[in-house]
Amino acid sequence: MAGKIIIDTERCKGCGLCITVCPKKSIVISEISNRNGYFPAQADNSNCTGCGACAIICPEAIIEVLRDDSDNVEIIIEPREDSEQNLIGEKA
Hints:
By secondary structure, this protein is α+β, with helices and mostly antiparallel strands. The protein has helices at about 15-20, 55, 85-90, and strands at about 1-5, 25-30, 40-45, 65-70, 75. The strands form two sheets. Strands 1-4-5 form a three-stranded antiparallel β-sheet. It has a two-stranded antiparallel ribbon with strand order 2-3.
């Protein structure tokens, strides 16, 4: 099973959460900053299994994971649109 990580590097704030959860160490911090001055996460897809842990933990919901299973069916793993609200909680 091979995976492909797609990161919106212009919206990434470089928090590094995706790096800490990747079991294959397929994500690193870029040495080049984005237009907002952040050093974004950068994918190295050579070892990616498509587990989707990075997409699930991303607080900005800017990571998408494509996974190619043995049946040649592409599976897309991305965070729910309300994932940021679930992390922060409702305001009083």
